[in-house]
Amino acid sequence: MKRGDQLGDTWDCPPHTAAKHELLGKYLDAWFAIFGQSGQGRVLYLDGFAGPGSYKGGEDGSPMLAARRLLNHSAFDRLAGTEYVFAFNEGDSARHAQLCEAVQKLKAEYGAKCHPTCKLWNQKTRTLVSSPMKSSPRLRESD
Q: Which sequence spans correspond to the domains of the chain?
């Protein structure tokens, strides 16, 4: 798939993205616990433009940041009754491969504690959001 940018497989984390990640982390710290204690049973976190999982400097990208915020959450043990599903999509094949590797490293790092489900797609986000949702109320993997 042709890239819509000139960033390469990984790139430096720009200041505005670092600021976004700081806000996202605080947001997730609050809402993972709120959703997890809501009695709904499942929390779906969808990142439609997930990237390779990390930046050149080693900083976590948004998918890894989200997963780590849950796994390191002070209430994590109390949230065991909730299924957390992380759905990460990256349309670029090279970045998608790096993202898959990053998810595997995260699972190895956290071991048995890493029970949230991670689903990975390699599609244009428009296809991911429209096609599976039309055919089923549940999000399905394409590969």
A: 15-130
